[in-house]
Fold these 2 entries.
Entry 1:
Amino acid sequence: MTLRDDTERPETVEVGSNILAGTDSDRILECAKMMVDREAIWENPLGDGNAGRKIVDVVRSCILKRE
């Protein structure tokens, strides 16, 4: 849940993994309840969570080529 009126990650709102609650306390509470009740069935729009491992593999490969 984003406590602003906009986000730099609109794809999270599009897939349903995020909601823009703004700064009004009543709206924040309403959105929090909505998020708790939601079923987490969306696909992660930001990647597979393996970027760090892939970067390390590439760096290691580059280092091994230089040795």
Note: The radius of gyration is 18 Å.
Entry 2:
Amino acid sequence: MCRRLSACRAGALAGAILLSACSRSVHPHTAEPYPARLSAWRLFTGDPAALKPNAGVVPYDLNTPLFSDYATKYRFVWMPPGTSATYNDTEVFDFPKGTIFSKTFAFPDADHAGRQRIIETRLLVKGSAGWVTLPYVWNAEQTEAVLDVAADPATVHWTHPSGTRYTIDYAIPNTNQCKGCHDRSKVVTPIGLKARNLNKDFDYPEGRANQLAYWTRIGYLKGAPAPDQAPKLAVWDDPGSGTLDSRARAYLEINCAHCHNPRGPASNTGLYLTAAQTDPMRMGLCKVPVSAGQGSGELLFDVVRGKPEESILVHRMESTTPKIMMPELGRSMVHQEGLALIREWIASMQGSCSAARPGSL
């Protein structure tokens, strides 16, 4: 009897331990209502602001990231146990239902040297009805983030590495704006999760490894070739990663091509800025814009070979005025370094554009 009771107690204890372990694991949600608090997803453990990933939550990075007012970004992915993404050489990978992507935006804390202030965490979740965008805004105490589908701008004070101090009204996109950027033929889709963006090394806790190879090894990706056989975008600010042309094209793809592609919100412009685009007209060279509103700055062509100052692309990149600036969402500042790259790229082009032969579509 004692032995039987002891065995029962041992079984109950083992069950309690298992239940406790499960309660600390990631808690996915694939349908409404979605959690009001970020902590309910259990993506991170310990101090919330430390962003220490829970078991199965994998950090990742992109070769060339989207510019977002110089914010530091922390990216993570989680997939349900036993599932994998399916590799695609050119398009976004096919991810299983329940996949969670987390992207957190932070700035150096102007009031506390060596610390940072987290502003928001955006989740992209593959639910029962497709991908869902969920913006969570962090509190001042940095202890929690709350779901806010139409958040007010956050005033941020920070110092650029050059030493220049800035105060900006950081705009947190609402859910409709998130859907706008992630629109592919009216369907919400991830943007950066392609082989050419992920094909790079990352410093994992257990050592440095190529991301495609690492995801394959842990079971998060199937069907991927060896990294040296997969496509790879250049790093926009690293001349050692590619030519001026390849770096400029990589920058334009990640910052502009999520809209400027045949299936994106700017498909009607005829300006397609993916890095694989080979048609000079589609790239904007000597192309008259479809709509010549104030965004054109009274300039004639999207890109004028050798003349960045006459190129509408540069005019819109160097503006912060609504209805002129491009990208139109996700920034309130000019990315000076990115702008300099595109200026250099256009200045290096040979040839000219003739107003008599504008090449409009």
Note: The chain has a mean pLDDT of 88.
